[in-house]
Amino acid sequence: MESIFSSEGGNGGNKEETPNPEPNHGESPESFTLLENYPNPFNPATSIRYGIPEQSTVNIKVYDLSGRLVEELVNTNMDAGYYTVEFNGSTLPSGIYLYRMTSQSLVSDQQFSQVGRMLLLK
To answer: Which of 13, 35, 45, 108 could form a disulfide with 49 if both were Cys (CB 3.0 to 4.6 A apart)?
Structure first.
């Protein structure tokens, strides 16, 4: 079983289909960026916005506070730009959840990892 503390892959998510991130056209960040989800607190859905400065492999996963994987939101190669992905917590209990973005550039040695926190209130 995967946890937020490990770097191993896994499929512990509660959805069968991974949502597609939506690009925000016309913008390109200078560095990797993971923004706070909005709205926060949320019920039942929230949006997570992030930016990548160059073509990269991007992975965003959601974990519960015990570190167990809840859902993998993004796991794909992406072009530079800002993106938004939605997380739907309608099947989850109220609580604090963590989302972690890791990224590896496909054109340089840049790596990125950051964790955010969100609150689901029902």
So the answer is: 35
